[in-house]
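Sanity check. The docking grid for flavin-adenine dinucleotide depends on where the pocket ends up, so I'm generating a full predicted complex first rather than guessing from homology. Inputs follow.
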Amino acid sequence: MQSMKRPEYDLIVIGGGPAGTSSAITAARAGAGVLLLERGRLPRQRVCGEFVSAESLALLAGLLGRTAADLQQRAVQIPEARLFVDGRVISASLDPAAASITRFDLDADLWQAAEDSGVETRLQTAVESVAGGGPFQVSTSVGDFGSQAVICAAGRWSNLSHKSDFTNGQSGERWLGVKAHFAEQSPPSSVDLYFFEGGYCGVQPVRLTGGDRREGRINACAMVRPDIARSLPEVFAQNPRLAERSQSWEPRMEPVSTSPLIFHEPQPIQDGMLLAGDAAGFVDPFVGDGISLALRSGAAAAECLTPFFRREISLQEATLRYGRVYESRLLPVFRNSSKLRRLLRLPRPLRSSIMQLLATVPAITRYLVSTTR
Ligand SMILES: Cc1cc2nc3c(=O)[nH]c(=O)nc-3n(C[C@H](O)[C@H](O)[C@H](O)COP(=O)(O)OP(=O)(O)OC[C@H]3O[C@@H](n4cnc5c(N)ncnc54)[C@H](O)[C@@H]3O)c2cc1C
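Predicted complex below; grid placement will be based on this.
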């Protein structure tokens, strides 16, 4: 039998998105020796509405450390959400305001903060497999590494996901995600969600580092069934208000897309590894909580492992603690967002009556928005 390599690291984190960097920064600041592995390069565009809910802004600022002020200066405040459904517009104020932050900047700044915190980082290093239930041997495109614990934050659909979990998806539906930035004159400072049969498109203002501050720029990001639309122009045609608004837009980047988007029951532990962010569970993007959940679950996973690194508890106890924390603090967001998703799937006459109620009683809309937080 091949002998297991002696662990060089306390923790290996797989994936350099918000969940992975949050885990790595939190663990390193608590004194752990951390290796962070990312298969891609940074900075890079990512399919995302780029809406960061207010609840996680303090955590984000804490994680970013010295670069927090720069990023917050580039963020656009989003104090209002508008839902365009069945010819109606339902508005809800967001108090405190959310932020619009491009993933191009966010992911690169979090990566920098991980390096500033003493994390050893490697880009263009794809994890191929993970062996052992603790200690672990992590095999990558550039060699093997050993660690006492592993946090997998490799996103919702990676070579490390258990594919069988996806076949039991809640709806069995597979969706496509597509995004691009456009120039628009004086965009409103709201997140605007345009719904249609088989999908929706979110539109909000964004500001890119080094971008022309005088030019209005928006991010349009859609989640759509591939039989309904496969490109942004096809998406825009699905909602009359969006079709009208998008007529004046000029593209500012090549569109990026991702598929399949599949929903399944959240699962925070797999083969002794702690799963964080989308790797644990993918929340419906229209609630705008994926980044927040990624930051929070990543930090929680690292916090649960800290007493293990200090030899106060076993790895098994640390993973059990994380499972309990995940269930009490993060699972409710999934439950409430799937209730909202069901509401949008109701037959049109029933949905219209509910939408009318929401439009006339803003307190209910605010309540619905807050229950997903
Ligand atoms: C259409 C759409 C719109 C969205 N809009 C919003 C929004 O407005 N607001 C919001 O909060 N959330 C939104 N989300 C969700 C949000 O993008 C995710 O929840 C968030 O990116 C999760 O972060 P993460 O770190 O878990 O995963 P990711 O950001 O996916 O990062 C995972 C990383 O792991 C790397 N990786 C994968 N496999 C390996 C491997 N084998 N080895 C090494 N590295 C690996 C990947 O390259 C990637 O960088 C949206 C999602 C979609 C699809």
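Relevant for the grid: The mean pLDDT is 88.
Also worth noting: Residues 14-20, 37-40, 47-52, 126-127, 153-155, 158-160, 177, 221, 223, 258, 261, 277-279, 285, 288-292, 294 surround flavin-adenine dinucleotide (CB under 6 Å).
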